[in-house]
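Re: export button greyed out
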Amino acid sequence: MARPTKRWGKWLVGGPPLVYLLVFFAAPTLIMVLASFRTPGDFGGLAPLVDSAGKLDLNLDSYARFFTESVYAEIFLKSVGYALLTTLFCLTLAYPLAVLIARAGKQYRNLLLLLVILPFWSNFLIRIYAWMIILGPQAALARGVNGVLAAFGHEPVPLLFSSFAVLVCLVYVHLPFMVLPLYANLEKHDQSLLDAAQDLGANRWQRFWRITFPLSLPGVYAGAALVFIPALGIFAIPDILGGPDDSLIGNVIKQQFLETRDWPFGSVLSIVLTVAALVLAALAAWVGRRNLVTPSSVEASRA
Amino acid sequence: MRRRPLGLWLAAAAGYAFLYIPLVIVVVYSFNDSRLNAEWVGFTLGWYDKLFHDDDMLVAAGNSLAIGLVASAVSTVLGTMAGVALYRHPMRLLSGLVLAPIAIPEILMGVSLLIFFVLLNFTLGLVSVALAHITFCIGFVAIVVRARLAGMDEDLIEAARDCGATPWKAFRHITLPLIMPGVIAGALMAFTLSIDDFVITFFTAGAGTVTLPLQIYSMIKIAVTPEVNAVSTLLMLLTLALIIIASRLSPSLFQTDRE
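Workaround output, generated via the alternate export path:
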């Protein structure tokens, strides 16, 4: 029986958060999209929306700049490359972890999973700082590596302030995002499929590559999207651990807003970044859906 | 039971080592009697002592605490409302707006809020940071509350309504007590997210306002001393405690196998 209160009750309960998010999320996003078509102000920020002649001042100049000045396209592609490498390394490291947790006894699973999630809840900057210590020039790792290099007559290499440092930390920070969806998928696999394969004489590798891995693809794609999107926009890691050549798209955006104060161009870069991230995530979801193999993997991809 | 191969154990052990060794190093060196984070010299609590006499750090901690308390209180109320509304009604716009701040790159939210506040001539500071934090915390609270509602027995509400309770009374006396662990877990999560946030705070704080993550950032950009290790250790302890309490209250937070 439908109650009449339900109709306005919906807005009474859902209304306040809706209004808050419209004001502090939707409106700022739309203002930024609009800003990308405006002219930069003489002293930073934005020029007036309506110019002295009373004409609306909207143009595609900042977009044209992104597509004509190749340095920005290069930095953007470099960022995509870093994000893809991060995704790949995360997948390689996360897979054994997820398999182990999924096959552990029920009483250990939540603990093992919690142990993967906890580092994610420690402060982002602390996790970057930790790598500053580990890779520092006076730390044991750098001395060991350079000791070996010296033995082969090679010049010492700096570990900190390098692409290597940026990549290691990107993988470190995003690893939990890959483990969770992979585990959620693997945990639902039907053990009897593997038993059947074994009875039919499939060895461990055949069982993995022909059963476990194809079934886990929805989890792989979900994890890839969860890693790729945040990795693409990161600026703090290259800022702290990278060398002068490791500036990524996030660093350029930060620079446009806080140093150059060219808001329209900064907005263009932010929009390009978001569109690229969402397109690739949608692609991952689409490929994931196309690769569904069994009803159990359908379920897993929803989790 | 099939035997798990040794290689799998080793690979997983390496994975856990990779996750924890960096954090352990930060903690260990916070007790190290040396300015360099390079080798162990001797035990000291000197860096903690320095920390508690560092005025900039204390101001930053106070700011973080104030922002965290306000942001978690407001986002818990709004997030709970959103969670209840989404559980009862298919509100597509609300569901999109609740999830979008979590799904898009953080930097986009930071810069769009910066433009927004500056164009409105809103002074950047504690208030703008708190308003920004509420925006991304609502979604996390809503998800936790909704998950809790999904596990609730609908019949209890129906029974209360049939006995003549108004929707508000039924919510106040039946629904709210039942979802309370979820609400508290959501509040703790929101507080943790707020106190840890760097990217969005970085863009919305303006020049004069410093929070703990911003203070840590400027310290590691300029001069690294083990004082950073000390503040990091304390912050990790706080987060760890909050998250473990939250996971006790709302186990679904750490179980991905719902439905």
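Chain B is about 75% helix and 0% strand. The button fix ships in the next patch.
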